[in-house]
Structure to design on (1493 residues):
C-alpha cells in the first residue's frame, strides 16, 4: 500500500511538470515574440521547475536531501505567483504603476537569501504520513502572505476583467482562469495546513495540474492567447488517427498471431487488404465526425445549418426565396430577435429592407441612404460592424441621427456587409439582439460571416442569372417590337399621302406603296423613268441618280404628268438603302404632291413682292422690330433718314441706334404700347448715325402672327422742316410781340420822360442850392440824399429817352473785332479790379460788315457790364469768355460768364423793358431792351442761354453785309 | 441626457482611443466626407426653422449650393433670436443655453441642442485624453481623475464643460462645480489649490495668465513657504515635503510643478502660445492647446506630440476665407469674400475661420472672427494626414499700420519679452500722430526704464521679428512705434475697478491689441490723475 502511495506521490509532480512543459511549447510555438506569451511561458516554466523540484524533494533518500530541494522550491513558488501576476496585468491591460511590479519582483528576490542563509522561513524538514514536509520558520507567514497576496491581486484583476468585458469568449477565458486560481488557492492551503498539523494530503501539485487543465481548456475552447487552432487541429487529427490506428493495429497483430499458428491461402491476404481498404476510410470518416462533434459541439449545429443553407441556395435563382431563407436561417440558428436584409434600390441606390424576420411585427422599414457614412463604410470594409463600433469608428462620425435612431429602434447588434465577388456592396444584413439577451459569440459571428459570404456569392450569381434572363427577355421583346414596328411601318407607308417607291441600282421599281399603285398602277420590275416620266433614260436632275452617285439623300422638285394628262408638281426625296457592309443596294424615293403648295407659294410670293415694293419705296422710314426691340428689317427710307445700312443694324437693339439717351424711357413706353397690341404715336426726336438729331413722327404698330404679337413695326416720318417752320413762326410772333411792345413802351416812355424831366430839373437845382446854404448837418444829409436820388431819376429819364428815341443806325463798313476790343478797353480797369478774368478768342479772319460802330459798341458794353455785375455780386469775381466766330453768313459774338446764371423761367423776359434783377443796385431794366432793339435794327439776332449756378451765355449774330 | 461613458470602465484603451482620438487617422477625403454628411444632415434639421429660412431662402441640395446660397453671417444676423433666448426661431428646443462674453462686452447667447452637447462632451473627453498623454494610444487616466479648474461658471460654456466632464467619467472637480458655482473667481481659485494640495491633482484647467502669474509669484517669493495651520494636515505636509525635496534636488526655489506633478495641463485664453515656455518652466508640463469657441465648442486640438492643431471633423462644417480675400472685405464691407474648404487650404497661408453648426444648432456660415494659419498639410511626426493649424489672432486683433505692416499679439509680446525688461502687462493699438498711423504701446513696467530707451529696444525687436515692419523702418525711415509707460499699478487698478463695476471675468483685463478708446482712457486715467 505504501509503495502504491509513494508511486502516486512521486508521479503527480512529474505529470504537473510534463503538462507545464507541453503548454510552454504550445504557447511559444506561434507567438514567441509576444511579451504576454513570454510572461505566461515564464510562469509555466516556474510551474515546471516547481514540479521537478517537488519530485526531487519527494524522491530524496533522507531529510537532508529533501531540505536541499525544498530550499530551491520556496523561491520558485514566489516566482510562480509574481510571474502570474505580471502576466495577468499585461493580459488584461490593467493600469498598474511600474513601481508595483518593481516592488513585488524585489520582494521576491529578497526572499532568496532569507531562505538560503537564514532559518527565518525554512528551518528544516520533517517526515509526515505522506512523505517529507518542511519545518516552517518564524517568518514563513510573511512568505505565505506575500504569495497569497500576489495571487489574490491577480485574481482580483481577472475578476474585474470578467465583470467589465462584454465579450463572451473573454468572459469564459477569465472564468476558467479564475476557477484555476481558486483551485490553486485551495491546493496551496492543502500544502500548508498539513505542516501545521492538520491530517491533509498536500494538494498544491494537484491544484497546479487542475490549473494547467483549466488553462488548456481556456486556450483550446476559448482561444486564450490565440492558440486554439493549433491545439484543436493537432489534437483532433492525432485523436482521429489514433482511434483509426487501434483497430488497424489490432487486426495487424491478430493476423500476425494467427499466421504464425496456421497457414492461410494467399487470396485471404487480398481479401483482408481489400476489406481494410474499404472499411478504414469509412471508419476514419466516422471517427472524424465523432471528433468534430466532440470538439466543435457548439459549432456543430451551425455547420449543419450552413450545410443546409448551402444545399438549399445552390438551386435557388430567385432573390426573394434566397433572402427569406437567409434571414430565417440566421434568426433560427442564432436565435436573433430581428434579422433584416437590406438591398439597394435600383433607382436611388439607397438600401432599404427587402426581407426581415423577428419580433418586430410589422417590421419597420430601414433605409440607409447611398453615400451615407454607414453605407460608405460598409462599401469599403468587409468586416461586420457592432453597434458599439458605430460610436467608435471615426469614419462613422458622419452617420446621421436619423440612421442612428433607426438602428437603435430595432436594437441593432450587428450590421454586416454582403459583398459581391466584384467587391460591390450587394446588400446589408442587420441583426438585432439575441432573444436570450446574451452577446453573440465568435462562433455566431463566424456563422454570420459564412452565410453572408455564401449569400453574397449567390446574390451575385442571381444577379448574373437575372441579367442573362433579362437579356433573353429583352431580345425577345425587341424582336416582337420589331415585328410590331414593321407592321406599323407598313400600315403607315400604305396610309401615307406621299408616293413611296423603292428601286434597285438599275432603276427598276422593286416596291410601290398603295398610293403610287393607285396613280400609276402596279409597275414593279419596270424602269422608273419610264413609269413616271415616260423616258428612255435616267431623267435629268433625278435625285435617285444623285443618291446612288453620292451615297446620301437628295431632294428635287419634279414636274410630272398624270396618266390623265394633268400637270402635277412633286418634291422627291431619294435616300440610299445600304446592306450590312454599307454598300448602296437600292434607293427609297418619297414623292410628295406639292401642286397646292406651289400655288400657295406663288400667291405668297406675289403678295410679298407687293409688300416689298410698298415697304422699300415708302418715303417714310420703316423699321421692323422683334419683341425684344431688335431690328429685323429696315426700308430704304430708314437708311436715308438715319444713315444706317440694313446689314449693319440687323439684330441690334433699336435703342442703341437711333434713340437719344434722354428719350430711351419714352421709346420703351412706345414699344410697350405697341407690344400690348395698340398703335403708338408720338412726335419726338431721333438720332442719326452721324449723331445729328432729327425731328420725327413715330408711329408704332404691333405685328401679329398666329394671334401672337411677335414684334413691332415703326414708321418714322421726317418732320424736321415742319418743326423748323413752326419754330420760325413762333420766333417771328415773339419778335413781333416784342417790337410792338417796345414801340408802345417807347412812346409811353418818351411822354413820361418829357413830363418828368422839367420838374426833375427843378428838384436837382433847388436841392443843390439848399445844400450850399444849409449848415445843419442833419439837413445836409437829407438834402444830399434828395440830390442823389434825383440824379438817379434823371439818369433813368435819359435812358428812357434813349430807348424811346432809338435812332436809325449809321452803318459803316467796320471790323467787329475792333469794336469789341474798344469796348473791352473801356471796361478793362473795372474788370481787373472786380477780379474778373477775361478770356478772348477773336477770329482775325472775321470779315468786316456794315454796322453802326457806336451802337454795337454800346451793345457789347452793356453785355460785358451785366456779366461783370452778375459775377461780382454772386462770387466776387469770375471768368468772362468772349468768342468771335463766323457762321453761315453771320458774325457771332458769344459772351460767356460763370456767374449765377438766369433762372429758366426768367430767360424769356431778359429783353423785356424794365425787367431787371439788379434791384436797388441801380438797374433800369432797359439795357438789354436797347441792345435787342439795336441788333434787330441791324437785321441780327440776340439771345441768351443759361444754366443756373453755372453761368450765362449771350449770343449776338450780325449778318455779314458787303460795303454798299 | 449626458450619461457616463461605460467604455472608460472597461479599460479597453484601444477602443477608447479609437472612439475619442481615432479621427487623427482619417484621410483628408474621409474628413471631407464626414463634413459633407453632417452638413447635409444639418440642412435637413434646420431648413424649416425661421432663423435658417432667413439666411437660407431655399433648401440647398449639396455642399456647393449651400455655400453659394447662404451669405457669410455674424452674430448680428442671429441676435434678434438668440439675445432674447427666443426658441421659436430655432430648429429644435435647445438642451442648454450658454453665453460667451463677447468682444465688446455684449453677451452672445448660444443654444446647444442635445446632440450638439453630446458631441461637445465627447470632444471634451478627447481633449482630456490628449492633454494627459504624450504618446499615441495611451490613455493615462481612468474614472475619478482629479481636475483642478478655475473655469468661469455656467452659463459659460467652460463652466458647463466642467459639470459635464464630472458626470461623463466621474471626474473629481477641484473645487466641486455645484458647490462653488456662485463663488468669486479668486475664492474658487484659492479653494481649488488648497484642495489640490490635500487631494493631489491629475489635470489642471485654467486661464493661462493665472498660471503664469502663479508661477511668477512663486519665483518672486524665491520659493519661501509661509506656513499656516492648514499645512499641518499630514497629506499636505507630505506634499510640501516632497515638493521641497524636489526643488532642493533641482537646486531652485519651489515651483508649482513640485507641488502638483501634473498629467495634463489645459490652458484657455488666446495667449497660451505666447507663454508656452513659462508654463513649462513653472508647471513642468507642456500646456495642451485647443481651438474652441462658445458658438461651436471644440474645433481643433493638438495631437499627443503637442505641435500644431488638427481640426475635428464632427465639430462643425469648416470654411476658410483666404487672407487676401479677408483684407478685401476689411477694406470694403460690401465685398463678399470667397471661401475655401479644408481640402483646398495651402500651407503657410492665413485664413479667417467660417463655421456652420452641426446637430441642429443655429449658426450658418458664421464668421467666428479668428485668424488661423495652416502650418502644414500633414504632421509626419505623428502620422496625421490632415492639415495642421495654429491660432494666429482674433480677426479684429490685428494691428495694421498703413497697410505696410501687420502685428499680432504674439509678435508684440515677443518683442517686449525679448528686450528683457520686466513688465507687468501691456496693451497696443493703432493711433495717429498728425495723420500718420503709429503703433502705440501702453506698458506698465516692473523696473525703471527710460521711455526712449524702452521704445528703442522694442523697436529693434520689432524690426527683427516683423519683416514688413523692417521694410517700414528701412524703406520709409519711419519709426512707427510710440510708447507710453503707465504708472505702477495701472493694470491692477483697472482690474479692480472693472471688478467693482460687476464686469465678468472676460472683461476684467484690457485686451492686448486694439483696445477701445474707453478702455485706454480707463487705463491711462491714473497717469493723468
Amino acid at each position: 500500500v505504501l509503495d502504491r502511495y509513494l508511486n502516486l506521490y512521486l508521479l503527480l509532480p512529474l505529470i504537473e511538470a510534463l503538462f507545464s512543459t507541453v503548454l510552454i511549447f504550445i504557447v511559444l510555438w506561434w507567438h514567441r515574440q509576444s511579451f504576454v506569451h513570454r510572461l505566461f511561458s515564464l510562469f509555466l516554466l516556474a510551474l515546471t521547475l516547481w514540479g521537478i523540484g517537488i519530485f526531487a524533494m519527494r524522491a530524496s533518500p533522507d531529510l537532508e536531501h529533501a531540505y536541499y530541494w525544498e530550499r530551491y522550491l520556496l523561491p520558485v513558488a514566489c516566482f510562480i505567483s509574481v510571474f502570474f501576476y505580471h502576466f495577468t496585468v499585461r493580459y488584461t491591460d490593467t493600469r498598474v504603476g511600474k513601481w508595483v511590479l518593481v516592488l513585488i519582483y524585489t520582494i521576491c528576490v529578497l526572499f532568496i537569501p532569507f531562505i538560503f542563509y537564514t532559518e527565518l522561513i525554512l528551518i528544516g524538514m520533517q517526515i509526515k504520513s505522506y512523505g517529507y514536509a518542511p519545518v516552517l520558520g518564524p517568518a514563513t507567514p510573511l512568505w505565505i502572505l506575500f504569495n497569497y497576496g500576489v495571487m489574490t491581486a491577480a485574481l482580483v484583476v481577472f475578476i474585474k476583467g470578467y465583470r467589465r468585458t462584454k465579450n463572451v469568449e473573454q468572459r469564459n477565458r477569465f472564468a476558467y482562469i479564475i476557477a484555476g486560481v481558486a483551485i490553486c488557492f485551495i491546493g496551496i492551503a492543502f500544502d500548508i495546513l498539513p505542516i501545521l498539523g492538520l491530517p491533509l494530503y498536500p494538494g498544491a501539485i494537484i491544484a497546479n495540474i487542475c490549473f494547467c487543465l483549466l488553462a488548456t481548456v481556456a486556450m483550446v475552447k476559448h482561444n486564450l492567447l490565440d492558440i486554439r487552432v493549433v491545439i484543436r487541429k493537432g489534437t483532433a487529427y492525432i485523436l482521429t488517427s489514433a482511434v483509426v490506428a487501434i483497430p488497424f493495429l489490432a487486426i495487424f497483430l491478430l493476423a500476425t498471431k494467427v499466421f504464425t499458428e496456421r497457414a492461410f491461402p494467399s487470396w485471404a491476404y487480398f481479401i483482408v487488404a481489400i476489406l481494410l481498404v474499404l472499411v478504414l476510410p469509412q471508419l476514419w470518416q466516422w471517427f472524424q465526425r465523432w471528433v468534430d462533434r466532440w470538439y466543435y459541439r457548439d459549432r456543430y449545429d451551425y455547420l449543419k445549418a450552413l450545410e443546409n443553407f448551402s444545399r438549399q441556395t445552390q438551386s435557388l435563382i430567385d432573390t426573394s426565396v434566397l433572402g427569406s431563407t437567409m434571414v430565417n436561417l440566421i434568426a433560427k440558428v442564432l436565435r436573433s430577435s430581428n434579422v433584416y436584409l437590406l438591398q439597394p434600390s435600383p433607382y436611388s441606390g439607397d438600401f432599404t429592407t427587402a426581407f426581415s424576420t423577428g419580433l418586430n411585427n410589422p417590421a419597420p422599414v430601414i433605409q440607409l441612404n447611398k453615400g451615407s457614412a454607414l453605407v460608405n463604410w460598409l462599401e469599403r470594409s468587409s468586416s461586420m460592424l457592432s453597434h458599439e463600433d458605430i460610436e467608435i469608428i471615426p469614419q462613422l462620425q458622419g452617420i446621421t441621427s436619423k440612421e442612428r435612431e433607426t438602428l437603435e429602434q430595432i436594437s441593432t447588434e450587428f450590421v454586416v456587409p454582403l459583398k459581391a465577388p466584384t467587391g460591390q456592396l450587394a446588400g446589408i444584413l442587420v441583426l438585432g439582439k439575441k432573444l436570450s439577451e446574451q452577446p453573440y459569440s465568435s462562433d455566431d459571428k463566424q456563422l454570420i460571416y459564412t452565410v453572408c459570404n455564401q449569400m453574397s456569392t449567390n446574390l451575385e450569381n442571381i444577379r448574373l442569372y437575372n441579367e442573362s434572363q433579362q437579356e433573353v427577355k429583352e431580345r425577345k421583346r425587341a424582336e416582337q417590337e420589331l415585328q410590331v414596328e414593321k407592321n406599323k411601318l407598313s400600315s403607315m407607308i400604305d396610309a401615307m399621302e406621299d408616293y413611296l417607291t423603292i428601286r434597285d441600282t438599275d432603276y427598276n421599281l422593286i416596291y410601290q406603296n398603295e398610293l403610287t399603285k393607285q396613280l400609276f398602277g402596279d409597275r414593279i420590275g419596270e424602269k422608273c423613268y419610264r413609269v413616271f416620266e415616260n423616258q428612255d433614260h435616267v431623267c435629268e436632275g433625278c435625285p435617285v441618280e444623285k443618291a446612288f452617285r453620292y451615297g446620301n439623300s437628295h431632294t428635287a422638285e419634279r414636274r410630272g404628268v398624270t396618266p390623265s394628262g394633268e400637270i402635277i408638281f412633286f418634291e422627291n426625296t431619294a435616300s440610299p438603302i445600304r446592306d450590312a457592309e454599307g454598300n448602296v443596294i437600292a434607293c427609297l424615293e418619297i414623292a410628295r404632291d406639292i401642286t397646292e403648295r406651289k400655288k400657295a407659294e406663288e400667291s405668297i410670293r406675289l403678295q410679298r413682292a407687293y409688300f416689298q415694293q410698298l415697304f422699300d419705296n415708302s418715303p417714310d422710314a420703316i423699321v421692323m422690330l422683334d419683341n425684344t426691340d431688335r431690328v429685323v428689317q429696315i426700308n430704304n427710307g430708314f437708311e436715308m433718314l438715319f444713315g444706317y445700312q440694313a446689314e449693319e443694324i440687323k439684330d441690334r437693339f433699336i435703342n442703341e441706334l437711333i434713340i437719344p439717351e434722354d428719350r430711351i424711357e419714352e421709346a420703351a413706353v412706345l414699344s410697350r404700347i405697341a407690344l400690348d397690341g395698340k398703335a403708338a404715336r408720338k412726335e419726338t426726336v431721333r438720332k442719326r448715325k452721324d449723331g445729328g438729331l432729327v425731328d420725327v413722327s413715330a408711329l408704332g404698330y404691333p405685328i401679329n402672327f398666329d394671334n401672337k404679337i411677335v414684334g413691332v413695326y415703326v414708321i418714322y416720318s421726317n418732320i424736321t422742316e415742319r418743326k423748323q417752320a413752326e419754330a420760325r413762326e413762333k420766333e417771328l410772333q415773339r419778335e413781333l410781340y416784342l417790337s410792338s411792345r417796345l414801340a408802345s413802351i417807347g412812346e409811353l416812355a418818351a411822354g413820361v420822360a418829357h413830363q418828368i424831366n422839367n420838374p426833375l430839373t427843378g428838384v436837382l437845382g433847388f436841392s443843390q442850392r439848399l445844400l450850399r446854404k444849409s449848415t445843419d448837418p442833419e439837413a445836409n444829409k437829407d438834402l444830399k440824399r434828395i440830390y442823389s436820388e434825383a440824379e438817379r431819376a434823371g439818369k433813368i429819364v435819359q435812358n428812357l429817352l434813349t430807348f424811346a428815341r432809338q435812332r436809325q443806325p449809321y452803318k459803316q463798313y467796320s471790323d467787329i473785332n475792333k469794336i469789341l476790343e474798344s469796348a473791352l478797353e473801356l471796361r478793362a480797369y473795372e474788370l481787373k479790379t472786380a477780379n474778373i478774368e477775361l478770356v478772348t478768342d477773336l477770329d482775325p479772319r472775321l470779315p468786316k460788315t456794315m454796322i453802326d460802330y457806336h451802337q454795337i459798341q454800346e451793345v457789347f458794353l452793356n453785355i460785358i457790364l451785366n456779366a461783370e455785375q452778375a459775377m461780382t455780386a454772386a462770387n466776387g469775381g469770375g471768368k468772362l469768355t468772349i468768342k468771335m466766330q463766323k457762321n453761315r453768313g453771320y458774325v457771332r459774338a458769344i459772351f460767356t460768364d460763370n456767374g449765377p446764371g438766369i433762372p429758366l423761367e426768367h430767360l424769356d423776359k431778359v429783353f423785356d423793358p424794365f425787367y431787371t434783377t439788379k434791384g436797388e443796385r441801380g438797374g433800369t431794366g432797359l439795357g438789354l431792351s436797347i441792345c435787342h432793339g439795336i441788333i434787330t435794327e441791324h437785321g441780327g439776332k440776340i439771345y441768351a442761354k443759361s444754366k443756373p449756378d453755372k453761368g450765362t451765355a449771350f449770343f449776338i449774330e450780325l449778318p455779314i453785309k458787303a460795303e454798299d | 441626457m449626458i450619461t457616463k461613458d461605460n467604455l472608460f470602465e472597461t479599460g479597453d484603451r484601444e477602443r477608447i482611443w479609437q472612439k475619442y482620438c481615432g479621427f487623427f487617422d482619417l484621410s483628408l477625403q474621409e474628413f471631407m466626407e464626414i463634413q459633407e454628411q453632417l452638413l447635409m444632415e444639418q440642412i435637413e434639421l434646420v431648413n424649416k426653422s425661421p432663423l435658417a429660412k432667413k439666411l437660407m431662402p431655399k433648401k440647398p441640395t449639396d455642399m456647393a449650393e449651400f455655400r453659394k446660397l447662404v451669405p457669410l453671417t455674424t452674430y448680428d444676423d442671429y441676435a434678434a433670436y438668440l439675445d432674447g433666448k427666443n426658441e421659436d426661431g430655432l430648429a429644435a428646443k435647445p438642451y442648454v443655453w450658454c453665453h460667451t462674453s463677447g468682444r465688446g462686452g455684449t453677451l452672445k447667447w448660444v443654444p446647444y441642442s442635445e446632440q450638439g452637447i453630446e458631441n461637445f462632451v465627447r470632444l471634451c473627453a478627447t481633449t482630456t485624453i490628449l492633454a494627459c498623454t504624450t504618446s499615441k494610444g495611451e490613455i493615462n487616466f481612468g474614472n475619478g481623475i482629479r481636475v483642478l479648474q478655475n473655469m468661469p461658471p455656467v452659463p459659460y460654456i467652460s463652466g458647463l464643460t466642467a459639470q459635464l466632464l464630472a458626470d461623463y467619467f466621474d471626474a473629481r472637480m477641484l473645487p466641486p462645480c455645484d458647490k462653488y458655482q456662485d463663488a468669486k473667481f479668486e475664492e474658487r481659485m484659492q479653494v481649488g489649490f488648497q484642495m489640490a494640495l490635500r487631494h493631489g491633482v491629475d489635470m489642471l484647467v485654467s486661464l493661462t495668465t493665472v498660471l503664469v502669474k502663479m508661477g511668477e509669484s512663486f519665483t518672486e517669493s524665491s520659493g519661501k513657504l509661509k506656513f499656516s495651520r492648514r499645512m499641518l494636515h499630514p497629506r499636505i505636509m507630505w506634499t510640501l515635503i516632497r515638493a521641497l525635496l524636489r526643488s532642493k534636488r533641482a537646486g531652485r526655489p519651489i515651483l508649482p510643478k513640485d507641488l502638483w506633478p501634473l498629467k495634463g495641463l489645459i490652458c484657455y485664453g488666446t495667449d497660451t502660445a505666447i507663454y508656452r515656455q513659462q508654463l513649462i518652466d513653472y508647471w513642468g508640463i507642456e500646456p495642451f492647446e485647443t481651438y474652441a469657441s462658445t458658438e461651436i465648442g471644440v474645433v481643433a486640438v493638438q495631437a499627443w506630440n503637442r505641435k500644431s492643431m488638427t481640426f475635428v471633423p464632427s465639430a462643425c462644417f469648416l470654411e476658410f476665407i483666404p487672407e487676401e480675400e479677408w483684407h478685401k472685405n476689411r477694406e470694403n464691407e460690401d465685398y463678399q469674400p470667397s471661401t475655401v474648404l479644408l481640402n483646398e487650404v495651402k500651407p503657410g497661408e492665413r485664413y479667417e475661420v467660417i463655421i456652420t453648426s452641426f446637430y441642429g444648432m443655429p449658426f450658418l456660415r458664421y464668421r467666428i472672427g479668428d485668424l488661423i494659419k495652416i502650418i502644414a498639410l500633414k504632421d509626419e511626426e505623428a502620422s496625421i494626414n490632415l492639415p495642421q493649424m495654429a491660432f494666429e489672432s482674433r480677426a479684429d486683433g490685428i494691428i495694421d499700420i498703413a497697410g505696410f505692416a501687420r502685428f499680432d499679439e504674439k509678435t508684440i509680446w515677443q518683442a517686449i519679452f525679448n528686450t528683457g525688461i520686466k513688465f507687468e502687462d501691456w496693451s497696443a493699438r493703432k493711433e495717429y500722430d498728425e495723420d500718420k498711423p503709429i503703433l502705440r504701446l501702453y506698458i506698465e513696467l516692473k523696473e525703471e526704464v527710460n521711455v526712449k530707451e524702452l521704445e528703442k529696444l522694442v523697436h529693434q525687436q520689432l524690426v527683427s521679428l516683423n519683416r514688413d515692419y523692417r521694410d517700414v523702418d528701412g524703406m520709409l525711415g519711419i519709426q512707427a512705434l510710440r510708447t507710453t509707460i503707465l504708472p505702477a499699478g495701472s493694470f491692477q487698478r483697472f482690474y479692480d475697478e472693472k471688478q467693482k463695476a460687476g464686469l465678468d471675468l472676460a472683461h476684467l483685463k484690457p485686451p492686448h491689441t486694439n483696445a477701445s478708446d474707453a478702455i485706454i482712457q480707463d487705463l491711462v486715467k491714473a497717469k493723468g490723475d
